[in-house]
Structures are given as C-alpha cells and as structure tokens.
C-alpha cells in the first residue's frame, strides 16, 4: 500500500485517519494542505476515484467565500481554484494509488488492507 493522507494538523478527522493507519502498522505519507496542496496529477487521480470535484468540496469550510466561488465555476476552473485553495476540501483525503476517499472512512480503508 502507498497511503497518502491530505489534511491539516487541526483537523480531528485527519488525526483520526493517521491514528487508524498507525495502529495497523501501515506506513503513510502525511501532506499538510496548509503548507502544500495537491499536485495536478494527485488531484486528477483523486477526482477520478471519488467521482468529481463536487464530491471533494466541503460545504462547511471556514473559507465560505472561496467555496461559493468554486461551487459555481465550470469544472476546469474549479480544478484550478482547488489547487490554489486546497483548504476548501473535506478532510482527510486519503489516497492509495488509484483509490481515494474523502472524509473519515475506516470501513473503506479496511478493505484496502
């Protein structure tokens, strides 16, 4: 498994996801969205796995202005804005190769094992 966890240190669900993998002895790479966002290739892979950019957006984000702006753009513009403002996505985003989940989903991660 090649696990990547995208989130922030303040996100309780991100910390729970990291603990989930630690407890099972599964190595993972933690990416802090405040410091480093998604690469174009990473974001494309995640979007294919989760079913589009709207599945990734967090309607409860603190950055409501950016969320509303992104929500009403065309898909290509949404993609670029999410790259610029990665904190508008639901956390954590957990990626395992071509598979990905949005939010805390331990039932799906158990299947990956």
UniProtKB/TrEMBL annotation:
Gene3D superfamilies: Glutaredoxin. Pfam families: ArsC (PF03960). PANTHER family: ARSENATE REDUCTASE, PROTEIN YFFB. Belongs to the ArsC family. Signal peptide: none annotated. InterPro entries: Arsenate_reductase-like (IPR006660), Thioredoxin-like_sf (IPR036249). This is Arsenate reductase.
């Amino acid at each position: 498994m090649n696990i990547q966890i995208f989130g922030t240190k303040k996100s309780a669900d991100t910390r729970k996801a990291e603990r989930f993998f630690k407890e099972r002895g599964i190595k993972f790479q933690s990416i802090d969205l405040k410091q480093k966002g998604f690469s174009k290739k990473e974001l494309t892979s995640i979007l294919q796995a989760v079913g589009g950019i709207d599945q990734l957006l967090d309607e409860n984000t603190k950055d409501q202005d950016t969320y509303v702006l992104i929500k009403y753009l065309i898909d290509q513009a949404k993609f670029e804005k999410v790259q610029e403002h990665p904190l508008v996505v639901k956390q954590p985003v957990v990626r395992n190769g071509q598979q990905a989940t949005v939010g805390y989903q331990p039932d799906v991660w158990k299947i990956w094992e």
